[in-house]
Design goal:
heterodimer, A: 324 residues, alpha+beta, B: 126 residues, mainly alpha, 5 helices, 85% helix
Chain lengths: 324, 126
């Protein structure tokens, strides 16, 4: 009896000495319970910080058991402290994970904005490029048109210049031709009359009362032949004339023979006989007075009338011939 | 029972009871745990805990000091517990630093988006 009492006293004493009594409410344990409870509710906690959550729960369980067992307060408090800190670490890790999710979402957002903006830029750049291309094409078209107009103008100017040149050349030619003819006619000593150009072959070319042409006539006739070749459209009327000496009929015959001689001489020189008409007009058309020697000599002549460029003679000439 | 046997028995029982309740001192100085606590505190500091997890870091240092004090006095169980607390507080400090850094990064990217939007709006007008 005595021993049992002694043992219980010592045991109680030992217990009392070494360990304190466990109060009903331990602050740190309450905090730990709340904290662990809170993180347990969060679905992300076990996903993101599973091990840490387990540690918190284990520590809390140890603390609760110790309390139930009436263990040393220090021990209960210690495990509760660990449980609390573990729970707080879980909170931190969950919070970090949420922030990182938001960061990822923001990065996506930023990328989307950049992409949209780049697309918009590309579109704008393309429309600018298209506008420039259109402008360039338009400018090209205008340039082409201007070029074409310029070319057309140039060609027209060329053509006009050519035409002017041609006209000038023709004019020059015509003038030259006219001058040439003038020169020839001058050389032939042809005179402008109301009958046209008239060439007079004088008395000296025939012997008295004869109709053979003397050699002196050759060069003149050569020139006439050459003229007729140069101006093939011209026709000739060859008129023989005499002075008033002697018989009119005889004079007419003589003048006719002389005219024919001239005609033949020309034919011999290659002139086509269709172009030559010979007639004797006798003493009917004197050009000078028959009262003087000189006058009579003048009247003794052969006249060559040159037609116009159409081969026509004025009406006066025709009447003259017809009257014979 | 004689007095000696009773004393011995009582003492053994007492010791047994005391040990069972965990109120006895640990047999060895908790070197491993002290080192782990040191390492954790260092790691937390290197990761910005001084800026973002200051209170937890302070606690960690205090606990570690307490641990060394207990260890010097051969209170190895107390030293062990203090060192455990130190390690965990250091871990918490590091976790807080990570969260704060992430929040800063989020703020940065949100600001850059705002700047981007402003730029684009400006270009649209022009």
């Amino acid at each position: 009896m005595h021993t049992r009492k002694l043992i219980s006293i010592i045991i109680s004493g030992a217990l009392l000495q070494a360990c304190s009594t466990v109060p009903d409410r331990i602050d740190v344990l309450e905090d730990a319970r709340v904290a662990v409870d809170r993180v347990e509710q969060d679905p992300m906690a076990s996903r993101v910080a599973g091990n840490e959550l387990e540690e918190a729960q284990d520590a809390l369980a140890r603390a609760e058991e110790s309390k139930d067992d009436g263990d040393d307060l220090k021990v209960i408090r210690h495990d509760a402290y660990l449980a609390l800190r573990h729970a707080e670490i879980v909170e931190q890790r969950v919070e970090e994970a949420r922030v990182r999710e938001q960061i990822a979402a923001s990065e996506q957002e930023r990328n989307a904005i950049l992409l949209r903006d780049r697309e918009r830029e590309a579109l704008a750049a393309r429309s600018v490029a298209e506008a420039r291309a259109a402008q360039a094409a338009h400018a090209d078209a205008r340039a082409d048109h201007a070029e074409a107009v310029a070319e057309a103008n140039a060609r027209q100017a060329e053509r006009k210049a050519l035409e002017a040149e041609l006209a000038q050349a023709r004019a020059a030619d015509a003038m030259a031709a006219a001058r040439a003819m003038e020169a020839e006619l001058e050389a032939l000593k042809a005179r402008e009359t109301e009958r046209g150009m008239v060439l007079t072959l004088g008395d000296v070319l025939f012997d008295y009362d004869r109709s053979e042409l003397k050699p002196g006539a050759a060069s003149t006739l050569d020139r006439v032949a050459a003229f007729l070749k140069d101006y093939p459209e011209r026709q000739l009327l060859i008129e023989g004339h005499t002075d008033s000496d002697g018989d009119a009929g005889y004079n007419r015959e003589l003048s006719e023979r002389r005219a024919s001689a001239v005609r033949d001489a020309l034919i011999l020189r290659g002139v086509d006989n269709d172009r030559l008409d010979a007639a004797g007009l006798g003493e009917a058309y004197p050009v000078a007075t028959n009262d003087t020697v000189a006058g009579r000599q003048e009247n003794r002549r052969v006249e060559i009338v040159i037609s116009d460029e159409e081969g026509e003679f004025p009406p006066a000439v025709e009447r003259r011939i017809a009257r014979q | 029972m004689n007095k000696q046997i009773r004393t011995g028995l009582t003492l053994s029982l007492a010791t047994l009871l005391v040990s069972a309740t965990g109120c006895a001192a640990a047999p060895d100085r908790p070197e491993k745990q002290l080192t782990r606590a040191e390492t954790s505190i260092e790691f937390a500091e290197q990761n910005g805990a001084r800026e973002y997890g200051a209170s937890a870091l302070d606690r960690a240092r205090q606990h570690l000091e307490t641990a060394y004090d207990h260890a010097d006095q051969d209170e190895f169980q107390a030293a062990l517990r203090a060192a455990e607390k130190a390690e965990l507080d250091a871990e918490l400090a590091a976790a807080q630093a990570n969260t704060s850094k992430a929040e800063e990064a989020l703020a940065e990217i949100r600001e850059s988006i705002e700047t981007l939007r402003r730029e684009i709006a400006r270009n649209d007008i022009s």
